[in-house]
Amino acid sequence: GETSSQDSEAKIEIVPEGVVESLNLNTPTLTVELGAGTYGTVEALTATQTLIIGDGVTIGTLILNGGALQVDEGATIDEIIVKDADALQTAIAAGVDVKLGADITLTTYLASTKDVTVNLNDHNITSGSLAFYVTGGTLTIDGEGIVTGNSGNSYSQPAVWAATNGKVVIMN
Fold it and tell me: Can you tell me the mean pLDDT for 82-107?
């Protein structure tokens, strides 16, 4: 791998030779970029930083334990499992389908503007206010689990809100 510093942010780039069956990244203070290559399972914790999946990267299963996600065009990921609100938000913003790997409590709503599927996978999403705000594209919620929204005021906040250009599909 190659390490560089950009805008005072530490970053590591990984470009493997051959197929990597399993990669576990525990880099809570580093942005990590996976360069062209093939990975079986990648489990990552980038915490307050970003995991960048570069063009030409192929991943079987990506498990995000925390941190933001950037998926470049030309990357292929068969399955993405998210375990925290930041990873879920960045995946939804990127228009990437995800499966929950844990219950998630939101501190702010999840903005959805692209076609994306969230598989609850027997987990719950809980918000003190709105959980999903869909302003474009189609948000599909699939799998067993509960999405809860509540304002805490004298009126109830819906868990999912679709604006004029947004669409919600709930599967079971």
Answer: 91
Q: What percent of the chain has pLDDT over 70?
A: 91
Report the Cα 97 to chain-centroid distance in Å: 8
- 146 by DSSP, 3-state: which? coil
Nearest one of 69, 113, 110 to 95, comparing CA atoms: 113
Q: What is the pLDDT of residue 156?
A: 61
Q: Which long-range contacts (CB under 8 A, 24 or more apart) does 134-137 make?
A: 134/160, 134/161, 134/162, 134/163, 134/166, 134/167, 134/168, 135/111, 135/163, 135/165, 135/166, 136/112, 136/163, 136/165, 136/166, 137/95, 137/112, 137/113, 137/166, 137/167
Say how far apart CA 151 and CA 130 lie, in whole Å. 7
CA distance 78 to 54: 15
Residue 37 has a CB neighbour count (10 Å cut-off) of 18
The DSSP output letter for 52 is E
pTM of the full predicted structure?
Answer: 0.82
